[in-house]
Structure formats: structure tokens, C-alpha cells
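Give me C-alpha cells for this 316-residue protein.
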Amino acid sequence: MLSVIADVGGTNIRLAVLDIATTEISKVREYPCAQFITLEAAIAQYFTTLTEPVINLCIGIACPVENDLVTMTNLNWQFSKNALKHKFSLQALHVINDYTAISLAVPFVSDSQKVKIGTGKEVTDGVKAIFGPGTGLGVSHLIKQDEKWVSLDGEGGHTSFAPNTSQQADVLLLLQAQFGHVSAERFLSGQGLVNIYHALCRLAGKQPEFFEAADITQAALNSECALATQTLTLFCQAMGGFAGNLALSLDCKGGVYIAGGIVPRFVEFFENSEFRTFFEAKGRFKDYLQTIPTYLITHENPGLLGASVYLRQELL
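Here you go.
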């Protein structure tokens, strides 16, 4: 009898087998979400690769999970928890937000699986903030309670974006004309990179050359396009401002952690960016923020690691 964990994003789904007793994660598979019409189809495909029946399943997924009907924000997938449990004859099904999972991974990420950015010293059991640009912008906080890590769910990626420079404000005005409300996710996501780049092109009176986040990032890293470099620069600035807001909101002496699939693609650029400057640029609270460390998570599958922590805490 097996326990399976899943990490479902807007682009890819990752699944693995968890040994509850030893914490070992094995048989990791990754599938493009576009390969399947439904989540059930993706899970069924993975189950065919296993030689034993699955009785426990924990899914970390990129959307709100409070109701029985779960509808993804950035992907045309929805499912009923009760129906899913019945379909696969599960004894236990746990569906959690993807950033609940990623946040639970943070205390178990080793020093070699994260990069420290700037100053500050982590308070081991202090409140931690976790966010990550990817297909969307996930946000969570983590607290220690009765020797157990508890994730504080939320949809912080959809809070209003707050500009910190005149250039950011100019981009914001263009995006407001396009979208109305401009959330942090409109800036800090894969599509956010495209939004920023296209806005900067309009402000410069130039036609955009790129229409995919990966192409913009690569052009910036190769110094092939000044506007692409400006885009990545503004992106890192905006991350810093957003991270500082999270740190102030819940006194995050345990540190602020960046996850997601985007930033690990340009670690060196990020380390040399103005992220930390904008993180600390909170006026009278600059000294306060200088004591809080910030990290980039480079662990390959933090969503699966966190889902394993959640499932073990529930079953043991």
C-alpha cells in the first residue's frame, strides 16, 4: 500500500511515492499539465507506473482549496475532492495550497539547497514568509506551534502592486489601463515579465521583440536587449519591495524565502540585483529589515518535499 504526493502548478505536475516511515521520496515523475484534460487523468497516468495500490494521496495545488470543488486559477482544471477520493478508492486524501506545501518544506531545506541574499540572521523558530513567482505568484507564512510547523494560507499574490520608483509607477499606469486592478502577480510571474517588458517597450516607443518570459530572460542574461535587461532589473526590484512588505506584515524573523520556477534560472543576476536594496527600503524600518535574512530556494522539488511533511504530520 502506497502513499503518493503531488505538486500541481499551472504548467507542470510532479508526483512521487512517499515512504511515511523513512521520509524517503522516490519514483518522481513530471508531466506537462497540457498533456492532460483533467487532473484525474494525470493522476491515473502516474498510478499506472506503480506496482502497488495507493491508499494515501496529498496534493499541493496552485489555487484556493477550501471547498469540495477545487478550480485552478491559471489552468482549466477543476475537480471534486470527494469524487477524486472515491474514484481512486483512497483511505486519505489531503488537498492543500501549493504554497502551503512549499512553506512546509522550508525548515527542511539544507544550506546547500538555498542561497542567502544580503544580511540578517535567521531566528530558527521565527515566523517565515515564503513567496515565489512562477505561472502565478504564490505566498504563504509559516509558524511553529507545539513543535509542529503550521502554514498560514492566503492569496497574497493578488494584493495590489505597490510601486517604489517612478519607472515602476509608469509601468503600473499602463497595466492599470489594460487590467484595471493590478495585483502583485501581474508583475511577479512569468506573464508578469512579459507585462513589464511590453510596458517598457511602449514607454520607449519601440515594438516588442519577445512574447515569452523565457525569451526575455535569456535576452537579458545575454545582454542582447537593453529593454529585456531593464525588465529583469525591475522584476528583481519589485520582488524586493514585495518581500519587504511580507517581512513587515508578520515580523518574519525566521526569514523570507523565494521559491518558484523563475528566479533559479538567473541566480547570478539575482544575487547582483537591487533585490535586497528594495527589500530594506522601508524608510524608518530599514534597520529592522537589515536583521531579517532572505533566501532563494534552489531545492529541485520543494512542493513535493512540503507535501511529504504535511502528509506525515497528518498520518503519524
